[in-house]
Design goal:
Enolase-like, domain 1, single chain, globular, 32% helix, seven-stranded mixed beta sheet, FAD/NAD(P)-binding domain, 22 strands, 15 helices, alpha/beta, five-stranded parallel beta sheet
Length: 469
């Protein structure tokens, strides 16, 4: 048995590794158990980071092919070197996971390679790929095992033709026809990558809208933008099956969500992107007595403690949005709680971003939610067509929309569709952390000319009116 640890974390994704670092900073003796060969979990290895590398590269490819001429840059038609683009993605991943390795060494965190499971109170079993099992003695355990891609019944994933996000990041060539099953963040991001590189993309969504959970007006307008780019949508539709053909192609069987005549769509690759589910298999939760909810998530209280003393859980394995930064903040919070501090996460101010072009970013309440809750609210909107910097950048698609309480002027939510929306949303996140009012934002000087001026203008629209429209 190894030395006694103050904290042992199962999983080295964004939640787990950040929790480990923060706990070590606070003086705890920390161990982490990770089954993958590299640290960083899904996000750094086969999720957030590699997808952003391909999103950025494909956007530049698209811009060089279609946007440069208007700016007075005449070049021959760009040629795609997919092998080099994938090498850039791999280098980006290696750099990031290598950074986490360095941080573990710097903070004297002990890493155990293998599958971690809870053997009992204060005991974690490590089962390596080869060799003997080890048992870790620990005062506290944090479950940070993350999530895996969800699948549809009867569809067999091979990560070659019928792929999850993992396989979609590794395609050896651009598919001529790509069917994306699911119009959520992952499906739209990866669909847009391959569309920009030349694929004909059709998105099939069970609901009657894209981006479930986001503001419905934003979703409608964003769908129009994607359609103008060439993306096709079949909403209120479900996939009944995906059949492989003798010629190597696929036939995707689609029918109305409420039932009806089946339609067949030809495809070369099908991407299943219907969401993710908590990964709890093999963790020994049943043996330890850790309670799960009706959706298979670990139940926790306000301090992230499970039904068993000394066992905590964070990230995708518990309720809430499956976002890396949400997991990170929970990791910091539980580390601080275990060190005797007052760790806390403000779930009302967690931003979400869709890294397409244009980007979509949001924080706080949507109009749909405020209506359902009976809250009296007002809307301030400002389009990027009226923003000087956006015009200069040929990036005038989209708008800023801010929602504030009618009586107090407190900002309740904000939604941005536009270039760099994911970077701009944070001034509204900060405002909401301090319970700020729209007037506070409207009276804050913004540099000119910047895209961020559209945020100030939207805040002004909540008062006497925007200046530039």
């Amino acid at each position: 048995m190894a030395d006694q640890f103050d904290l042992t974390i199962i999983g080295a994704g964004p939640g787990g590794y950040v929790c480990a670092i923060r706990a070590a900073q606070l003086g705890l003796k920390v161990a982490v158990v990770e089954k993958w060969a590299t640290l960083g979990g899904t996000c750094l290895n086969v999720g957030c980071i590699p997808s952003k590398a391909l999103l950025h590269a494909s956007e530049l490819f698209e811009e060089a092919g279609h946007g440069f001429k208007a700016l007075g840059i005449d070049i021959p038609a760009p040629q795609l070197n997919l092998k080099q683009m994938m090498a850039h993605k791999a280098d980006t991943v290696a750099s990031n996971v290598g950074g986490v390795d360095y941080l573990f060494k710097k903070n004297k965190i002990t890493l155990f390679r293998g599958i971690g499971s809870i053997a009992g109170t204060g005991r974690v079993l490590v089962t390596p790929q080869s060799g003997t099992q080890q048992e870790i003695a620990t005062k506290n355990i944090v479950i940070a095992s993350g999530s895996v891609s969800a699948n549809l019944p009867g569809i067999e994933i091979d990560e070659q033709q019928i792929v999850t996000s993992t396989g979609a990041l590794e395609l050896a060539e651009v598919p001529r026809r790509l069917v994306v099953i699911g119009a959520g963040v992952i499906g739209l991001e990866l669909g847009s990558v391959w569309m920009r590189l030349g694929a004909q993309v059709t998105v099939v969504e069970y609901l009657d809208r894209i981006l479930p959970g986001m503001d419905s007006e934003v979703a409608r307008q964003f769908q129009r933008m994607l359609q103008k780019q060439g993306m096709e949508f079949k909403l209120s539709s479900k996939v009944a099956g995906v059949d492989k053909q003798e010629d190597g192609s696929l036939k995707v069987r689609v029918e109305p969500a409420k039932g009806g005549e089946v339609e067949t769509i030809d495809a070369d690759v099908a991407l299943v992107a219907i969401g993710r589910k908590p990964f709890t298999e093999g963790l020994g939760l049943d043996v330890a007595g850790v309670a799960l909810d009706e959706r298979g998530r670990v139940r926790v209280d306000g301090a992230y403690k499970t039904s068993v003393d000394g066992i905590y859980a964070i990230g995708d394995v518990i309720a809430g949005p499956m976002l890396a930064h949400k997991a990170e903040d929970e990791g910091i919070a539980v580390a601080e709680i275990l060190a005797g501090q007052a760790g806390h996460v403000n779930y009302a101010a967690i931003p979400a971003v869709v890294y397409t072009n244009p980007e979509v970013a949001s924080v706080g309440k949507t109009e749909d939610e405020l209506k359902a809750e009976g809250v009296e609210y007002k809307i301030g909107k400002f389009p990027f067509t009226a923003n000087g910097r956006a015009k200069a950048m040929l990036a005038s698609q989209g708008f800023v929309k801010i929602l504030a309480d009618v009586n107090t002027d407190r900002v309740l939510g904000a939604h941005i569709v536009g270039k760099n929306a994911g970077e701009m949303i944070h001034e509204i996140v900060t405002l909401m952390e301090f319970s700020g009012a729209a007037e506070d934002l409207a009276r804050t000087t913004h540099a000119h000319p910047t895209l961020s001026e559209a945020i100030r203008e939207a805040a002004l629209a909540l008062g006497d009116g925007a200046i530039h429209i």
